Amino acid sequence: MLRAVYNSAIPEAIRKPVTRALRFAPSLGICVRLSFSILALSAAWAADWSGPEQQLARKIAAVTGPGAVALTVENRSSLGQRDSEIIQNGLRSALEAAGLRFVKAEQAAATVTITLSENPSSLVWVAQIRQGTADTSVVLVSAPRPEGASSTHDAVPLSLRKTSLWAQESPILDVAVLEENSTPTHLAVLDPEKVSLYRLQGGKWQQEQALPITHERPWPRDLRGLLIPAGDHLLDAYLPGVICASTAAVPLTFACRESDDPWPLVAAGLSSGNVFPPAGTAAISSAIVPRMKAFFAPTRNFFTGALTPGVGKFTTVPKFYSAAPLPRDKYTLWLFATTDGQMHMVDGVSDQVARFGWSSLTTLKTLCGAGWQVLASSSGEQAEDSARAYEFPDRDPVAVSAPIDLPGRITALWTESRGDTAVVVVKDRETESYEAFRLAVACSQ
Amino acid sequence: MVAGLAAAELSALAETRPEYGGTLRVTTSAAATSLDPADSTQPDSFARRSISLLMFETLVTIDGNGRPHASLATAWRSSSGGQRWQLHLRHGVTLHDGTALTAEIAAASVRDANPTWNVSADADSVVIALESADPSLLAELALPRNAIAKRSGDRPVGTGPFHIVDWTPGKKLTLAAEEGYWGGRPFLDSVEIEMGKSYREQMMALELGKADLVELAPEQAHRISLQETDVLRSAPLELLVLVFTREVASLDDQALREALALSVERSSIRSVLLQGAGQPAGGILPNWLSGYEFVFSTDADLQRAHQAREQVRTIPRWTIGYDSGDPVARLLAERIALNAKDAGLSLQVTSAASADLQLVRIPLPADPWIALAAVSARAGLPPAKGSAHSVEDLYAAEQSALASQRIIPLFHLPASYAASTALKNWSLRPDGSWNLADAWLGSGKP
User: Do the beta carbons of residue A391 and residue A374 sit within 8 Å?
Assistant: First the structure.
C-alpha cells in the first residue's frame, strides 16, 4: 500500500496566507487580492493549538502528578505576543484539566517552565520540570507552525497606483488583461511552460485553459517573456528564441516555433490607439510612437541591440534590457537601459549616454502631466524594488511621482496594450513567490 | 510634488537585471584532492559542499524549513511504510560529457555513495529499498555527497550549472558555465577556485581585488562586516566540540569528564577568542535546528566541577589535540586547559593526533537526524535512531549521545563569507554552502 504522498509537481503552497488561498482556489485567491478589505479579513487566521496543549499537559502531569505547581511560560519562538498568550491560556486550562493547580513557587511541589521554541519544521514546546532535589525532567511536544500574518503593503502613493493582478509560486513572466469591466475579468498569465487563461465568473476566477509552450532548448536563467494581445487572434507570446501564437478559432490552441524574430517594443496603445479604451481617454495626447521591434538574445536575458526598422540612422544600439519611447514633435526619443548599466538616449541623430541606475523602464501614455511618462524601476538597499514615474522635458529625467514600493525584486515591467498602464512582476525574496501588479498613474491627485 | 529630481541623484540607484559574463574568483581553506562528491576520504566542509554543487546536483533539495523540492528528480513516493522509495527523474537532463542522464546512471551514483542501500533503476525512476523505514531519506539524498555523478573516466561527470575545465588537486579548480544546463545557463562565464588558502591569505586576496568571494574565520566576521564588504553568515551550523577518543572506562573517568564539561567557560571564550561569534553549545544540535537546545546548560560551574573531581583520587594527565591548520584552535585548546586546571584537572595541549581528547569542528548537515548521526559517527557512537522521527525521539537520541560522555559540545559557529561588491545575487543554502547558480558580476559601479 502506498503511504507517503508525492511531492507536488504543480506549484505548491505559497507561504503568505493570501497566496496560500491561491493554491486551493486560484480564482478565489485573485478575487481576494483585488479587494484589500477582504485581504485583511483573510489574514485573520486563527490556529487551533488545543491538540499540542493537551498533549503537553498530559506529559507534564505524568511527571508531576496532580497537585500544586508553579508555572512559567516563556516564548523563544517567532510567535507573536497574541499567539503566545493564546497558547499560554490554553496550556493553563489543559494543565488544570489534568489536575494541576497553580501556586507560587514557594508553595509548589514542582516548578514547571514551559518554553515555546521552534525548529525549521515545527514549533517545539519544552517543559522543564523541577521537583525537589531531583534532576530536571524534560518533556516536549511539537506543534504545527502557523502561517504568518500577511505582510501589509505600504500605502499606495498619490500619483502611482498598483493593483494586484495575479500571484503564484511559479514564475510569472507577464500578465495580459484580455477583458475588463471596472476590474479585469479575463486574464492571461505567462509562465515558463504555458499561458494560463483565467476568467472571472460569479465572483471567482476559473481557469479556462492552459496553453502549453513548447521549446527545444533549456530556457536561459532570468527568463523573460512578453504577452501581446492580438487583433485577429487572442494573443502572441514572445520568449527567448520562441514565439507562440494562439489560433483564432475556439477551442484555442497555441502554436510555438523556434524563432529569432524581433519582439515588439511599442505597445499597441502607444502606436495606434487603445485596445480597451477606458472612459475619458479622448483627451489623451494624439502623438503616437512609430512601431519598433528589437531582436532578443535567444540564450540570454537582453535584447541584442539590433532594431527594426531602427531609430533614424541607428539600426543597432548596445545590448539592452528594456526600452522606452517618448514622442517629440518631429522625432521619437528612445531610452535604452543597456546591460552595462547606462542609459542611451537615441533620437535618430545622436546617442547621448547617461547613468540613471534604471534597469527596467517602459512608457505610459496618460492624461497626466505632459501626457507621456517613463516608468522606471530601481533597486533598494533591501530586498524590495520600487517604481517611479518620470518625464523628460529634455534629456534629464524629472520625477513626477513618488516612488512606489513593490514587495520584492522587479522581474518584468511591460506597458499594457492600451498604453496607459503597465504590468510589473515582482519576486518576493523571502517566499520566492511571484506577483503581478498593474501600475497606473493617477493624475487627479 | 516631487518634480525636479536631478539626474545626479538618480545615479545613486543600482541596476537590477542580472548581467551575463565574467570570471568569479573564489578562495577556500579546504584543499580537496578529489572532486567526487561521494569520496568518503575527503572531509566534509562547507567549501566541499559548495564546490560539489557547482558541478553536481542532487535528486532533491531541502529548503530552510526542511521541505523537499524537485531537482534531478521531479516526483517521488514512498511505500512499504517508508522502506521503498521511487524517484522519477527529470526528462531532458544531459551530463557534462553530452550523454543523457538515465535512471541507470543515477541509480549507480546513489549506490556508489551508499553501498549498503539496495538501489535500482526502473524505467525513468530510481528505486531505493531500505532495510528499515527512513523518514530522513529525502534529506539524505539532498546531501552533496549523494549528488549524481557518472564515474566512468578520470573524473566524475555531473549535470550541474558548471563543468570542469581544469583541475589541479588540492590547489586550483577552474569551472565554466554549462551552456545547455537544464536550469538555464548560469550568468557567470567561469569560476576559478584557489584552495588551501589560510583565512589571512583569503582576506588579503579580497582586499587586493584578487578574489571575489572568500571564507571568513568566525572571529573575523564581525570586524569584516563593518567594512564595505558583503558578508553573509549561515545559521550556526558548525559544531566545535571536544571528542574523547576512548569510551568512559570507569566511574572515575566518568566523574572527571563531568568535571571537565563543567569547567569550560564558554561565554568568556566566545567574547575573547571568538570575538562574539557563534553560540555557546550545551547540546549537539543548535537550538534553531532542534528547538530545545536551551535545556542543556552552557554555564561553567566550578563548584560542581570540583565536587566531581574530588570523587577521584588519582588525576590522569590528559592531552588535548587540535588542528594545527586552524589559527584559533590552539588558543581555544589552551584556554580549555586553563579552565580544566582551575577545576583541578590536568590537560596538556598537543598537536599530536593521538591525544586523549580532540578539539574538532564538525560541519552539521541541515537535517537534525542526519546532523546527529554525523556527530555520533565522528565520536564513535552508534547511529542515532528514532522510531517516528518525532522531536521527542530526537531529544532522547541526543540526550543519549551526550550521556555517553564521549563529547563535550562547546560552540555552534556559522559559516561566514565575504564578497566584493561586484558579486551580486549570491546566497547561502540552508547547509551553509554558497550558491552561485544565480550569481552575477556587476560593474561594481552604482
Answer: yes
